[in-house]
Design goal:
By secondary structure, this protein is α/β, with parallel strands linked by helices. The protein has 2 domains: 241 residues, 3-Layer(aba) Sandwich (Aspartate Aminotransferase, domain 2); 116 residues, Aspartate Aminotransferase, domain 1, CATH 3.90.1150. 40% of the residues lie in helices and 14% in strands. The strands form 3 sheets. A 7-stranded mixed beta sheet has the order 2-8-7-6-5-3-4, sandwiched between helices. A 3-stranded antiparallel beta sheet has the order 9-10-12, with no helix packed on it. The longest helix has 22 residues. It is globular and about 60 Å long. It starts with a strand and ends with a helix. It binds pyridoxal-5'-phosphate. Pyridoxal-5'-phosphate binds next to helix 3. Its cofactor is pyridoxal 5'-phosphate.
């Protein structure tokens, strides 16, 4: 049975072109980028070219990009080090952030090095910008705002330029978790002033375990990982050269093919929405699908005896998707995002997330098979 992968917000398959670029480096470049001999210089050049590709994609300077082990490390680094090194004593964030942000904030609260306040979320799952303005105006403390660009469960999009302008006007730093939007939406850091942002290669058809953090030149922080002088003294440890080369190749392709891929994915999602509404009129969509990332759709199915087994039945039928319901049933660990939006809901939620590799036929098959599982 060939499988249908509709879990592309969790991760994406490695693009064969990216795999080719990585294996070429694995086979031929074993130098340590810190060595001054020819092998080392070759490895260093690969990393610096990759950095240039990322900086070009974001319209920032190459000195502002630091490679990490992924989005989790990038977000930890931005949050914890801006408290440690930049005098931030107050963070404003949202309850719908990814756990790597929320748990970093828990650690900061535990250490009592900064206070954390949560902005209000409206009924559709968007950040209430007036509440953000109110929170920012309420204190003169050095504040960092940390809000994600697109929610990984419901897809809701933050108006990035507007939030950046609000933060700039209030004199606050702005960290944006752009892990879900990197490569999918244009981000111009010369036009939109951010202090920090994060990216993770495996969300845009690159390898797992590699990402990057953008740190604007105005916000010099100290290393997160202590060690050698790698990443211009910002992250000790011999660099993941193949991963970094793969990340850059994947981002280059994502940017070059953005419109084509986006058109295809939008078409699939629209078809999915139309078909599922027509076939199962009692489904509901979480968040605000009209103002969301085009690859994500969170669907709630009415309470039913088979609902708890929905994800397992999808899997048994060759369909991969993610869970996320308000309640914890023992099988489904529950989602803090759906739990926040619909605390009393007993409905069963499935996140479908699409890729340019999916087809209309796959969508039709999923809609047809769902019938027997509800
Ligand atoms: C919004 C968001 N932030 C951060 C992360 C963490 O990224 P990584 O898996 O590279 O650590 C993810 C991955 O699920 C994500 O969706």
């Amino acid at each position: 049975m060939s499988r249908i992968f509709l879990d592309n917000s969790a991760t994406t398959p490695l693009d064969p072109v990216v795999l080719g670029a990585m294996t070429e480096v694995m086979a031929n470049n074993y130098g340590n980028p810190s060595s001054i001999h020819a092998e080392g210089r070759q490895a260093r050049a690969l990393i610096e070219n990759a950095r240039k590709t990322v900086a070009n994609a974001l319209n920032c300077s190459i000195g502002e990009i630091f490679f990490t082990s992924g989005g989790t490390e990038a977000n930890n680094m931005a949050l914890k080090n801006s408290v440690r090194d930049l005098g931030v004593t107050r963070i404003i964030s949202s309850p719908l952030e990814h756990h790597c942000v929320l748990h970093s904030l828990d650690a900061i609260k535990m250490a009592e090095t900064a206070t954390v306040e949560m902005v209000k979320i409206d009924a559709k799952g968007h950040v209430e910008l007036d509440d953000l303005r109110r929170l920012l105006a309420a204190s003169n403390e050095k504040t960092l705002v940390s809000l994600m660009h697109a929610n990984n469960e419901i897809g809701n999009l933050l108006p990035l330029e507007e939030v950046a302008a609000i933060c700039e006007e209030a004199g606050a730093l702005f960290h944006c978790d752009t892990v879900q939007t990197m490569g999918y939406f244009p981000i111009d850091l010369d036009a939109t002033r951010l202090s920090f942002l994060s990216g993770s290669a495996h969300k845009f058809y690159g390898p797992k375990g590699v990402g990057f953090v953008y740190i604007s030149n105005d916000n010099i922080i100290k290393p997160y990982l202590d060690g050698g002088a790698q990443e211009r003294n910002m992250r000790g440890g011999t660099e993941n050269i193949y991963g970094i080369v793969g990340l850059a190749k994947a981002l280059e392709l994502a940017v070059a093919e953005r419109e084509e891929r986006a058109g295809k994915i939008r078409n699939l999602k629209d078809h999915f929405i139309r078909s599922i509404k027509a076939t199962y009129p009692e489904v509901a969509f979480n968040g605000d699908p009209d103002n969301a990332h085009y690859k994500v759709l969170s669907v709630s199915f009415p309470e039913s005896s088979k609902g708890d087994l929905l994800l397992m039945n999808l899997d048994l039928n060759g369909i991969s998707a993610s869970g996320g319901s308000a309640c914890s049933s023992g099988i489904d660990v529950g989602s803090h995002v759906i739990g926040h939006l619909h605390p009393d809901s007993k409905r069963h939620t499935v996140r479908f997330s699409f890729s340019h590799h999916n087809t209309i036929e796959e969508v039709d098959e999923v809609i047809a098979k769902l019938g027997g599982m509800l």
